[in-house]
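Are you able to produce any protein sequence you like plus the matching backbone structure tokens because I've never seen that pairing?
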Amino acid sequence: MSESAEPLVTREELTVLLAHAGLNPAPAQFEEMFAAVQYVRAMSDRLKRDFTFADEPAHAFSAARF
């Protein structure tokens, strides 16, 4: 992420998310998580989510064939 870009997740939002998960990281750990969560949020925003019930799963396994 660019230093000038506005963060996708603010420090306050990350603090709330970590507290909700029961985590209380040290300041150095928090900074690492804050840097990483920007990339994680950007990647998750690229995932397709508008699947319908009729859409076929990507992987299907049938034990009856063996």
